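We read letters as residues; the fold follows as C-alpha cells. A sample entry reads:
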Amino acid sequence: MSAEYTAKGIQVLKGLDAVRKRPAMYIGSTDLHGLHHMIYEVVDNSIDEAMAGHCTRIEVTIRKDGAVTVADDGRGIPVDRHPTQKRPAVEVVMTTLHAGGKFDHDSYRVSGGLHGVGVSVVNALSEWLEVEILRDGKVYTQRYERGKPAYDLKTKPQTGKKDGRGTIVTFMPDEKVFTTLTYSFDTLSLRMRELAFLNKGINIVFSDERTGKRHDFNYSGGIVSFVKFLNENREVLHKKPIYFEDHADPYEIDIAIQYNDSYNEKIFCFANNINTVDGGTHLVGFKTALTRTLNNYAQKNNLFKRSRTSTTLSGDDVREGLTAVVSVKLPDPQFEGQTKAKLGNSEIRGVVEQVVGQKLGEYLEENPPIAKRIIEKAMQSARARDAARKARDLVRRKSALESGSLPGKLADCSMTDPEQCELYLVEGDSAGGSAKQGRDRRFQAILPLKGKILNVEKARLDKVLANEEIKTVITALGTGVGEEDFDISKIRYRKIVIMTDADVDGAHIRTLILTLFFRYMPELISQGCIYIAQPPLYRVRKGSDDRYAYDDEEKDKILKEMGGSKGVYLQRYKGLGEMNPEQLWMTTMDPERRTILQVTLEDAVEADHIFTILMGDQVEPRKQFIQENALEVRNLDV
C-alpha cells in the first residue's frame, strides 16, 4: 500500500539545494559537457566585463589538482553590503540564484549571463570555490564549500602593485555530481579562441598545468579573422572577407562573410557571444536578406539572361560555398532554455535584415567583379540542384518506404522497431559475408560496401546522389538526404555501426563514410546514431588459452600473463575477412562483449576544420596535419 500523500511529502529546497538536486536543469548534463559548462559560466562573467569596456585580459588555468582558475582585470565583483540581503554583494552573487548585475542595464548594457544563475550554480556544484577580488586597494577573499560560505568575507591590503583590480575565481567541480573530472583541453581551447574572435582586442590566455599546454588568443581583426580561420584550407572567391557592422543603440550587429569553392555552407551565429547552434531570429534575418539582396542584384544587372538558370536563386543556391559569422549583441536576449541554443527575440530579425540588405547591396554595387563571381557560383548551384532533385526523386522512388524494395546487398533484420535495430556498414563482401553469418538476425542488419565511396567533400549533391554505394546507404536508412529531404523520424535503424578493416584503407573508408554523414546527414551524429566498431588487432593463443587484444598494450599484458612469446601463436589482423563468423560475432558484434565508439560532435568549428583538411583539395594543410600528429598515431599499418 502506498504511503499517504500529505503536506509532509512536499519537499522544499532552499538556497542552492535545488541546483545540487537537479544539476542537469542548470548546466545541461553532468558529463563532460556539463563539466565544461561550469568553466564557460565563469568565463562569461569576465567576457561581460569586457563587453562593458572594463576588462582587457582573461586568464583561464586548469590546475594540476583538477581545479580551475578564471582571472580577469575587470572592476571586481562588488563587496559592499547588499541593501536588502544584508550580506556582502559578492556573497549574494555566489549563493543566490537569479542574483547578479545582468538585470541592471546601468551595470551591463548587453550580457551573455541572462538568468543570473551562472556563478552561483558553479558554486553549488563545486566541492569548494574561492573568490578573490581586487578593488579599492584591498584584497577581498571568501571560500565556499558545496555552495555554503566557509567563513565571512575577509579583507587585507594589496601588496606590490597598488590599486590592482579584477576578480579571481577558483573552483573544484564536485566528484559527487559529475561523471568525469577530466577536461578536454582542445574543446575548451576552441571556445576560448571563439570568444577572442568575437571580442576583438581582448587577450585570453588558456593554460593547462597538467600537460604544460598553453594558448594565447588575441585577434585584432575580430570576426574577420574568424572567417579567415574557417576558410584557411579553402580556395576563396574573394581574398578579403566582406565585413559590415551597425552599432546603432541598443543593438550591435557584426557580420563577416567570404565565399569559397566548396559546396557546403558554414554559418556560425552568436548572440551576446553565445554560440546559438540552433540559430534563431538573427540567422533567419541574415538568410532572408542575403537571398533577396543577391537576387535583386542579379536581376538589376541582367545576369539571369546570360544564364540557363531560372529567374530566381534559392536560399540554398546563394549559400553554397558561404562561410559567415553573424554576431549580434542586444539587451534582454530571449533564449530557449539555460543552454541558450536558439535566439527568440523577434525584433532582431528585422534589424539584421535591414543591415545586411543595405550594407551588402552597397558592397555588391561597389565590387561588380566579386558580385558576378558570387552570382555565377549560385547559378551553378541552381543547375546542379535541379539535377540533384531528379536524382533524389529516383532514390526516393527506390526507397524501402516508398516501394518496399530494399537494396539487394542488404541483409535486413527481422525486428522493425528502429530503437532496437542496428545497421552495420561493412567494408567488403568477404567481411560482409562473415558478418551476415555471425550476426544476431533479430536486430542486426548488414550492408556490405564495395570499395571506397565518393569523397563528398569534393562533390555537389547531384554527384553524391549518382554514386551507387551512397544511394544504397541512403535507401537502407530511409531518412532521405540533404537539408530539403532529410527526416530522422523515418530512420530504420537508430544505431549505425561503421565496421572497417584496421588498416590504412579501412581508416580512409571510415572517414569517407563519416564525411557523408557530417556534410549531408549531420543530425545522425548530433542524435547519437553513429558508432565505430572496434575489431581486435591481435589474436593470442597458447594451448587452449585463446584471447583477443584490441591494442598493443593489451597484447603485451596477455603475453605477460601467458609467460612470454615462447609457444605463443600471435596473429595480427589486417582485415575483418580474416575472422570467421563466430570470431567476428564474439569480438566485434556481440552487444555483451563488443566495444563500439559513439561518434559525437564536440565542436562544429573544429570538426569542419578537420574534415576540410583531411578530405579537401588542399595538399599542404593535409601534409602539415600529418606531420604535426604523426607521433599521436597508434597501430599504424603500412
